[in-house]
Structure formats: structure tokens, C-alpha cells
């Protein structure tokens, strides 16, 4: 059992001691001096650290024809001894039947360019252009899912605070873990994904999130909430995680409101509230049925800003059992040893919701489309 525990600790991870909330330095602490930092090519570099971490680039597409897609590359390192990369694609079935087109393919001969801004592998290229404002994704990794996409930034990219990073550890000068998110929140998308059945035209809007979990993911966060909300004029994004009790169940929330080609607000003074929920029989988690998302802060010119998206989530798109591919006996032991039971609930209501925005005394309301995730881990 001790051998098994040590093995799971490397790959899955046992519970940590209670360090307390002082063992996490939230990115929110940086915002007093620097509310947000504009992304340049240097800040878009892959890190490829040689210790346990998970690094991702995720592209969300809301096509003008209603198609909803996620494309993602995951680069992970376990204990500095085993590095893997995967390319994931998901075309959501929005009919409610659950017939999503999902592919997760291991990559071979993966590598970065000299500048660490482009990623490649056998039959895959993810290329950032010289100007640093557009990614081209071409994949024939899976013959049943051919990807040819271009995602172009239409408003400045940003990260919250100076570096977008929350740090974990009892010694502030030598953190043992980190969590980083950056955003291109308002993008134009062109291109297609071709499956055995059809070719999906994906011209529309997009969101790009590069992220780094510089520690075992379930040690960093016990729960997540995420929203991507797109209207003709505005984009609203928010990412919130709650640490496990080992770090005081601390909430870290980053988000922004963008209008056309500018950032209206970006900061860490936002909240997510599950206003109603129901117990999911399969996972046992309290699946949200309605959520209220609230952004609060100052605009660049110092005006008070408040915004909200509030409403029913409708029928969920999908419930993802993160450990679904893990052998059953390991999954059972991992749950009992590490206390982990990760599930992701994904939503995109058929009925449009509204972004309600107030800047100073001026109020604006605009309908749009939402994609959101609520994740329960431990």
C-alpha cells in the first residue's frame, strides 16, 4: 500500500497538509499596482518546465452558424521524468442528445520553435505569426478530425496583474507551485474542421487561453468556474478556482470585459455564485442549474464598472468524467487516497442570456451566447 501511495502521489497525488491561506499568494495581490498586463509575444512563450506541471493552449470557437468547438493542446510533465502531449478536439452536440464529436490523440515527436511560441508534432502545427496577433492550427493527427483554423486577435490580449500568476508555498521567495492564465478574449475565427460525416464551417468568434498549472492540478484547485460570453459588441470572460483546504479554500478570480477592439476592464474583483443546483446522481456533485457572474472594478479612465450575466444554464451540454479513462481499480484507490473525483459540467444555453453593463451612470444591455464550465475535483 505504501508503494501504491507513492506511485499515486507522483501521478495522481495524495492530500497535502493544511498550510493555510497564507501559503498562497493570489494574483489579486499584484493588481493594486498593476491591474493587468498586455500580452506580447514574450508572454506567449511555452514554458516547458522540467518539473510536474500541465501547460495548455485552448481555443474556443463560437461559429456564426451556431457550431460550438474546443481545440486544445496539452503538454504535461510528471515529476520531471515523463513528458507527454495530447491534441484534443470537441465539437459539441447542442441538441441535447450528447452525441459530441470528441477526439483526444497522443502526439509524437512534439517540439517547440526556437522562440518557444510555436508548437509542432507529427501531423500538427500551431503557429503564431510574426506580428504575434494570429494563430494558425493545422492538424491531420486524426484522419476523422482534420483541423484547419486561423484565430486572429481583435482586441489586446492580457494577463491579470504583472504576470498573471498565483504562487503556492510557505516561503514566498521559493514557491513550490503556481497557476497562470492569460487571455485573448475577443478573436475572429476562420477555417473548418472536417469529420467523416461533414465539414464544419467555423467562421465566427473565438477565445484563446494559454494556461500553466505548475503543480499537481488537484493540489492547486478543488473547484473551477469558467465563462466565455460573446455578443456582437462585447466579450466577457471569467476564470475562478478555489484551492483545497490545504490552502484555506481560497478563491482566485480573474476576468475582463472587452468592447470591440479595447479592454474596458480587467482585474481580480469578480464573483461567481451558483444560484441554484441539483445533485448529480452519477457524480454526487451539486451540478449548477443557474449561475450569476459579476464583474466589479474600475475602467482604464477610473470610472466605476459593474457587469453581470445571470440566468438559467438550461440542459447541460456534457458531464465529463475526467478519470473516465483510468482503470477502475486505480480510480477507486485514487479517490480514497487522494480524495479526488473530478467532473466537468459544461453548459451553453439555447436561450440567449444578457450582459448587463454599467459604467459610471451609463447602463447597457446586450444579448449574447455563453459557454461555461463548472468543475468539481475534491
Tell me the CATH superfamily: AttH-like domain
Count of DSSP E strands? 27
From the alpha-carbon coordinates, what is the Rg to the nearest angstrom?
20 Å
Q: Could you tell me the strand content as a percent range?
A: over 45%
Q: What count of structural domains? A: 1
Poorly predicted regions: 1-11
| Helix percent band | under 10%
Structural class, from helix and strand content? mainly beta
CATH architecture: Beta Barrel
Largest sheet: 16 strands, antiparallel
CATH class: Mainly Beta
Q: Secondary-structure element sequence? A: HEEEEEEEEEEEEEEEEHEEEEEEEEHEEE
Query: According to CATH, what is the topology?
Result: AttH-like fold
**How far from one another are the termini?**
22 Å
Average pLDDT reading: 91
Note the total helix count: 3
Shape: globular
Give a short synopsis of this structure:
The chain is mainly beta and 378 residues long. The chain has helices at residues 2-11, 217-220, 328-338, and strands at residues 24-25, 36-38, 53-63, 68-78, 82-91, 101-106, 111-112, 119-121, 124-128, 134-142, 145-153, 158-160, 165-168, 177-195, 199-201, 204-213, 223-230, 234-242, 251-259, 262-267, 270-279, 286-298, 304-312, 318-321, 343-347, 353-359, 362-376.
Task: Characterise the protein shown here.
This protein is mainly beta. It has one domain: Beta Barrel (AttH-like fold). The chain contains three helices and 27 strands. It has a 16-stranded antiparallel sheet that branches. Strands 17, 18, 19, 20, 21, 22, 23, 24, 25, 26 and 27 form an eleven-stranded antiparallel sheet that branches. Strand 18 and strand 19 form a beta hairpin. The longest helix has 11 residues. The protein is globular and about 50 Å long. The N terminus is likely disordered. This is Ceramide-binding protein SVF1. It comes from Penicillium frequentans. Its main location: cytoplasm. Ceramide-binding protein that may transfer ceramides from the endoplasmic reticulum membrane to the cis-Golgi network membrane, and is thereby required for the biosynthesis of complex sphingolipids. It is found in: Cytoplasm; Endoplasmic reticulum membrane; Golgi apparatus, cis-Golgi network membrane; Nucleus.
Amino acid at each position: 500500500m505504501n508503494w501504491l501511495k507513492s506511485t499515486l502521489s507522483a501521478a495522481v497525488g495524495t492530500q497535502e497538509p493544511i498550510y493555510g491561506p497564507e501559503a498562497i499568494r493570489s494574483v489579486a495581490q499584484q493588481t493594486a499596482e498593476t491591474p493587468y498586463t498586455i500580452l506580447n509575444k514574450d508572454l506567449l512563450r511555452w514554458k516547458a518546465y522540467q518539473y510536474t506541471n500541465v501547460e495548455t493552449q485552448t481555443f474556443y470557437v463560437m461559429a456564426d452558424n451556431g457550431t460550438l468547438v474546443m481545440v486544445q493542446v496539452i503538454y504535461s510533465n510528471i515529476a520531471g521524468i515523463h513528458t507527454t502531449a495530447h491534441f484534443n478536439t470537441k465539437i459539441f452536440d447542442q441538441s441535447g442528445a450528447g452525441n459530441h464529436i470528441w477526439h483526444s490523440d497522443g502526439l509524437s515527436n512534439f517540439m517547440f520553435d526556437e522562440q518557444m511560441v510555436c508548437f509542432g508534432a507529427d501531423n500538427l502545427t500551431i503557429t503564431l505569426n510574426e506580428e504575434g496577433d494570429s494563430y494558425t492550427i493545422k492538424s491531420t493527427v486524426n484522419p476523422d478530425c482534420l483541423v484547419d483554423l486561423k484565430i486572429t486577435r481583435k482586441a489586446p490580449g492580457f494577463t491579470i496583474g504583472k504576470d498573471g500568476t498565483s504562487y503556492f508555498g510557505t516561503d514566498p521567495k521559493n514557491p513550490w507551485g503556481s497557476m497562470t492564465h492569460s487571455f485573448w478574449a475577443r478573436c475572429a475565427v476562420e477555417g473548418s474542421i472536417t469529420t467523416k460525416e461533414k465539414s464544419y464551417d467555423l467562421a465566427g468568434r473565438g477565445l484563446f487561453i494559454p494556461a500553466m498549472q505548475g503543480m499537481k492540478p488537484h493540489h492547486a484547485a478543488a473547484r473551477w468556474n469558467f465563462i466565455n460570453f460573446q455578443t456582437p459588441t462585447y466579450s466577457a470572460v471569467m476564470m475562478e478556482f478555489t484551492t483545497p483546504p490545504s490552502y484555506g479554500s481560497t478563491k482566485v478570480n480573474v476576468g475582463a470585459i472587452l468592447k470591440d477592439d479595447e479592454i474596458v476592464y480587467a482585474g481580480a474583483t469578480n464573483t461567481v455564485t451558483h444560484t441554484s443546483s441539483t445533485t448529480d446522481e452519477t457524480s454526487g456533485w451539486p451540478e449548477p442549474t443557474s449561475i450569476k457572474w459579476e464583474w466589479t472594478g474600475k475602467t482604464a479612465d477610473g470610472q466605476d464598472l459593474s457587469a453581470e450575466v445571470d440566468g438559467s444554464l438550461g440542459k447541460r451540454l456534457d458531464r465529463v468524467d475526467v478519470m473516465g479513462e483510468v482503470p477502475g481499480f486505480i480510480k477507486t484507490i485514487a479517490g480514497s487516497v487522494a480524495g479526488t473525483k473530478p467532473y466537468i459540467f459544461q453548459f451553453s444555453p439555447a436561450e440567449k442570456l444578457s450582459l448587463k453593463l454599467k459604467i459610471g451612470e451609463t447602463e447597457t444591455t446586450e444579448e449574447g451566447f455563453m459557454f461555461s464550465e463548472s468543475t468539481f475535483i475534491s
